[in-house]
Structures are given as C-alpha cells and as structure tokens.
Amino acid sequence: MNCTNTIAVAMSGGVDSSTAAAILARGGDGATVVGLTLQLWDQTRLAGKHGIPDAPKAGRCCSLDDVYDARKVAEQLGIPYYVVNQEERFERDVVRPFVDEYLAGRTPIPCSLCNNHIKFDQLLKTARAIGAERIATGHYAVNEYDEARGRWILKRPADLAKDQTYFLFGLTQEQLAHTLFPLGSMTKPEVRDMARRHGLRLAEKPDSQEICFIPGGDYKQFLTAYLEEQSERMPETAGELIASNGEVIGRHEGISNFTVGQRKGLGVQSGPSPLYVLSIDPASHRVTVGADAELATRALRARRLNWISIATLTAPMRVRAKIRHRHEPAWATLEPAGTDAVTATFDEPQRAVTPGQSAVFYHGDEVVGGGWIF
C-alpha cells in the first residue's frame, strides 16, 4: 500500500461521511481509500435503567445500524473497511469528563472533546498504523495551507447552515496538515444529490440529532444511570435558590440539575415574569435565578486554548466570537488574560454565556482559535 497516496475515511454510516468516501474512492486521482469506523459507545449499555429506553432510538449516531450502513457503503465502493474499538478511550476522554463537568455545575460539550481526543487524534494514529498518511471526514469545513503564515488554516464551509468548525477548534496543525474535508465546498442538498449520483443506498438517510451516549437528550437520566453502574453516588450538592438581589427564594436538590439560561424545572414559582438560571456556584451550591434580561453579559473568559490561524495571542484582536453551536458569532475584542487564558469583550451583550461550553473565535471565515468558557 502506498502510504503517501492512501486516505483513511472516517465512516459514521451517515450520508456525509459516505459521500466523502465516494468522492475520494471514485475521484480518479489514483488514491487508495480505506474506510474506518471508530466504535465509541455500546448503545445497549445502560438500556432500561432510570427511564433510558431499552432499544436504541433512530437518529442516534454510532449505533450498530450505522456500522452496518458504513460497511455496506464500503462494499459498494469496493474499498477495504475496518471497525476500530475505541470505547475505553471514549469513556475516559469524553464520557467521564462530561459527567464530572455536569456534577461540578458546568455545561460540557462532548462533541468537541470527541473531535479533539478521538475522531482526529486516534483516527490519524489508526490510519498510520494501516499505512495511510491522510484522513478524511464528512465534516462541513475547509482547511488550506497559508504559505505566508506557514500555518494550516481552518475555514467555515460553503454551507454555513451546516458549519461544523465550532466543534473543530481544537484541531492541531499536525492534524489539519493530514486531514481532508471533501464536503467543504458543497451544500447539504448538493451532498445528497452527489450521494444519489453515486448510487449510495443511504442518500435519504436523516442526519443524527442526538449525542451518541445520551438517549433522548436526557442527561439527568444518563448521569443517574452511569453513576449507579460505576457504583458511585450522586454528590450531595443541594443548596439555595437565590434571586439576583440576594434573596433566598427556595432550595434545589443538586447543581447538576441546572444549566445557565434554563427556564423550566427550577422548582420555584416565577411570578409575573419567567425566571432563568443566571449562574451556578459549585462551591456554595447556590443557584442564582433572575429575569431573561439579566442573562446578558458583555464579557467571557476562556482557557485551555488552541490557536489555528495564529501561533498565539499577544495583543488585542478584533474577532467574532461564537459561544454555542447555534449562536451567531458576535463582534468582540479578544485580549490575553494570563497564562493560557483570554478575555473576550463583546460590542453588544450576549445571552447566556455558559461555563463549560466552547468559545470559538473567527476572523472573517477563518477560525482564529478557541477555548473553554470558565
């Protein structure tokens, strides 16, 4: 196998990664294409516990059905296909941090952790082990080398509605240098049309919508079931619900039940205006609630940074900052704030800046870098 012209494609069993594989396998440039699926989570592991469904629900990624679909596409394309078990590392680097963050009163984002620690890091290592020097995925993103800066640059894709760069801010220069994003210049309808032209059996398959290890999106069920399986008890974090003026207005059963911006399930009468979670204090176990307008903030701090279009931040920089996947990037001034930390001060207040989430910074369509809000 020619390592320099061999590409390992991450195949999830969805239309995007399958189309990426088809583009490369039938591209006519002589590249050898190999399909890889990373087995990350046993979908039946916590089934039937604490309200978790007995059978995996359609629409969850990384299921056995997805592995079957990926294998069938690989057979159709005539490329070798392998399933690589990464469940142990996925639990260590993604699931356990997710649990610990929620128990500490923060709101984690597992998809970014998975991309950083598993889908690119481990995928590239596995690819090299089978003789491939490049990997490809079905993410909607663009990467290219900038000669003037001597850096690989990550850019937003043609289809901004499908932009996945928010989840890719942690990619290193090494990973970007060996990664292909075949769908970066395409829209989702164009990808489905391409899948049809290649005769792929899953051209109409719906996109997965859920976190692979959180059935139905109910993280409270998952936390309870997971801790029970691990013979661990839910930490005692019951405490006071306080109004933004400092008045104690009730009590709650644990900080892991809340996230910044939450409205429902507060356990207290809201009065004439709805109440929202404004902040969570892990030390005192206090949860502060208030009016929607009080969720607005002018600044955030982020740490554990990764820089892409620049080597490091040494002076204030104008950027657009994105604080959650569906957030429209907002103008801000980015400044260094000590070792491995930055402050982003927004031109206009932003709603529900949430500790534990990612903050990703853009200059035009380039990803400058990003970090974790604290």
Helix content: 10-25%
What is the level-2 CATH architecture name of the largest domain?
Answer: 3-Layer(aba) Sandwich
The CATH class of the largest domain turns out to be Alpha Beta
Number of helices: 8
Gross morphology: globular
DSSP strand tally: 17
Give the SSE layout.
Elements: E1 6-10, H1 15-25, E2 32-39, H2 64-77, E3 81-85, H3 87-103, H4 110-119, H5 121-129, E4 134-136, E5 142-146, E6 151-155, H6 173-177, E7 179-180, H7 188-197, H8 219-229, E8 239-243, E9 248-252, E10 276-281, E11 286-290, E12 296-307, E13 317-322, E14 330-336, E15 341-351, E16 358-363, E17 366-373
Parallel strand pairs: 1-2, 1-4, 2-3, 4-7, 8-11
Antiparallel strand pairs: 5-6, 8-9, 10-11, 12-15, 12-17, 13-14, 13-16, 14-15, 16-17
Note the main attributes of this structure:
374 residues; alpha/beta; Rossmann fold; SH3 type barrels; Elongation Factor Tu (Ef-tu), domain 3; 3 domains; six-stranded antiparallel barrel; five-stranded parallel β-sheet; 23% helix; globular
Structural description of this entry:
This protein has 374 residues and is of the alpha/beta class. It has three domains: 3-138 and 182-217, Rossmann fold (3-Layer(aba) Sandwich); 236-290, SH3 type barrels (Roll), CATH 2.30.30; 296-373, Elongation Factor Tu (Ef-tu), domain 3 (Beta Barrel). 23% of the residues lie in helices and 28% in strands. The protein has helices spanning 15-25, 64-77, 87-103, 110-119, 121-129, 173-177, 188-197, 219-229, and strands at 6-10, 32-39, 81-85, 134-136, 142-146, 151-155, 179-180, 239-243, 248-252, 276-281, 286-290, 296-307, 317-322, 330-336, 341-351, 358-363, 366-373. A hairpin with a 2-residue loop joins β16 and β17 (366-373). A six-stranded antiparallel beta barrel has the order 12-15-14-13-16-17. A five-stranded parallel β-sheet has the order 3-2-1-4-7, sandwiched between helices. Strands 9-8-11-10 form a four-stranded mixed β-sheet, with no helix packed on it.
